[in-house]
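User: Teach me something about this protein's shape.
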Amino acid sequence: MPGLYSFLQDIGAGLLYWVPTLCLILGCATILGGAVMLHEIGQRNDTSVVSLWKIVGVMSIGALLLAPAATVNMVGQTAGSSRLAHIGGEERMRAEVPSADELQGKTLAEIVQAFLTPMDPFFDGYGMLFIIIAAMRLKARIKGVPGPTLGGCLIMFLGAIAVIHFDEIAPWAVTQLRLQ
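Assistant: First, the predicted structure itself:
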């Protein structure tokens, strides 16, 4: 079991460092693309090809990509979660695997929580990666690329939020299903 934790923490550590870089690159490129679209409208003086709402949507997605952790934390707090998503931090990378002595006498929800907490960096990185994918699919939808649907993008975004907050959702589900 410690090998699995170590493996997932290493993957999480990698994701938590290259996902913010990817977010910054894609966010800046998306906002720059929106500015180019705005410039095209100004040059042509014609909004028939690119509407102002598409530009606002593309620039909003760029802003989401520049601050994904803030967006996730806002959505999580709106849903009643106390957990905050972190990206790019080393301070919580090496949590200890719970031992059998520590888990003795605890409820099933507490045991599930104890096993999932060391994997927070993995869940944060994986969820942020899916937020990037959902944002880029939504941008493609706004630009008129056939394929990605608005509902699919929303489901992917909400699924990413659920993955990030999985260490709170799983114990809650255990208590709601009365598995204790």
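Now, about its shape. The CA atoms of residues 35 and 164 lie 32 Å apart. The first helix runs from residue 2 to 44. If you'd like, I can walk through any region in more detail.
User: That's plenty for now, thanks!
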